[in-house]
Amino acid sequence: MAAELRLMIPTKETVEPDDRQLVETIRGGDADAFEVLVRRKTSKVYSLCYRIIGNSEDAKDISQLVFIKLWENLEKYDPLYAFDTWLYRMVTNVAIDFMRNKQSRDNAVNSNLRLVKTSIDADQGTIVQRKEVESVFNTVSQALSPKQKTIFVMNQMEDLSSSEIAKVLGCRESTVRNHLFNARKLMQQQLRKRFPEYSRLWKEEQQ
Amino acid sequence: MISCQTYRASLTAGTRDAALLEHLRTCDACLDFSVEVDPDNFFRSIGGSDLVPPGGVDAFVGDVMRAVQVRGKETSMAAHHPLSWRQRLAIAATVAAGVTGATIFWQHERQPSAPVAAPIARAAVVPAPAKVLATKPIVETYSRNATIVEVPSEGKVNVVMIFDEKLPADL
Q1: Is B57 within 8 Å of A51 when comparing Cβ atoms?
Q2: Do A63 and B53 lie within an 8 Å CB cutoff?
Q3: DSSP assignment of A147-181
Q4: Is A68 within 8 Å of B67 when comparing Cβ atoms?
Q5: Can you give the pTM of this predicted structure?
Q6: Which run of H or of E encompasses B88?
């Protein structure tokens, strides 16, 4: 009797449902389960959006759009595949679309603006400041195409391997490596041009 | 988190080690060293940690759930009107075209067929009964060059004309 009672008492060790189980519950019509899923994935989705887009308000809007699309397309999810891969694909599609539209708007407005920092001596040693790296990244990554930037972010900041990125984007691994190579090259060029104080970092590769 | 000493001793270019990456992304004192070892660490240093949207996770989740509910209501309202506006427009256009066509056909049927004579001459002539004029000729083609035109009338005599290019002119 005591054992039966003990079994009925919920413990803190209750195992939370994994993503696939949550999706099944949502498909069964449980909207609360969707809220659990959104809460679980918010930081992941927002972080990726923010790093691709580089603007917190836009990243927030895009993240919300991703979750609405997720709700609308949940029936299409195949549980044979990892849920995060499917979610990342949705995030990258929405973010790339947004970036393409934004890029075309920005190009029309700022075609003549080319800010180049030249006041600092390129040979002068500079200590890397973390808070500065983010703004440097946002500036130099403007030279990348939306797809290149997405791949660069997923590889360098989200620590996804080339094969994982290929699965997310539905392309070949060689394509991902090619985009990464070109992205690095463009980023280095932009660093030398706009932030010569950091160009010393890639001196060996230039030679 | 591992110590700076351990980190500096173990860091290699292109590392995927989670502990090393965590140190790279949190320790400001080792950042310059990290970039010296591998320039890619310059941008890798700003990755990793999960960010929180402005306003916090709770507000964000609330916004998403409200948006989803609104979409749900829109979808259920759309379900009461199973036809889209395009479909409704297409049906309206089809009905309008049908009514117009039927009206034109009906008017055409009711109009007496115009006589060949000029309007002035027609004015002089007493108009024939509509029944006779309404009769349509029956046209039959029986070979490539020949056509029979039969004009029935209410009387016993039917007018039959044969047009055949091969027939002699004095037939």
Answers
A1: no
A2: yes
A3: HHHHHHHHHHTS---HHHHHHHHTS-HHHHHHHHH
A4: yes
A5: 0.65
A6: helix B85-110
Q: Do A50 and B51 touch (CB under 8 A)?
A: yes
**Domains located in chain A, CATH noted:** 16-109 (1.10.1740.10), 117-201 (1.10.10.10)
Question: How many distinct structural domains can be found in chain B?
Answer: 3
Tokens of B85: 């506006």
Please state, as a whole number, how many other Cβ atoms lie within 10 Å of the Cβ of residue A128.
Answer: 20
CB of B49 within 8 Å of any CB in chain A?
yes
**Partners of residue B33 in chain A, C-beta under 8 Å:** none
- Is residue B148 a part of any domain in this protein? yes
Residues B69 and B101 in one domain: yes
Per-residue pLDDT of chain A (207 residues; tens, 9 = 90+): 444 444 455 555 567 888 989 999 998 888 889 999 999 999 999 999 999 998 899 999 999 999 999 999 999 999 888 999 999 999 999 999 999 887 666 665 554 444 443 334 444 445 567 778 888 998 999 999 999 999 999 999 999 999 999 999 999 999 999 999 999 999 988 988 888 888 776 655 444
ipTM of the complex as predicted: 0.77
In a domain, B121, yes or no: no
B74 touching A (Cβ < 8 Å):
no
Is residue A200 classed exposed, middle or buried when 0-12, 13-18 and 19+ CB atoms within 10 A define those classes? Answer: middle
**Residue-number span of the structural domain to which B17 is assigned:** 4-44
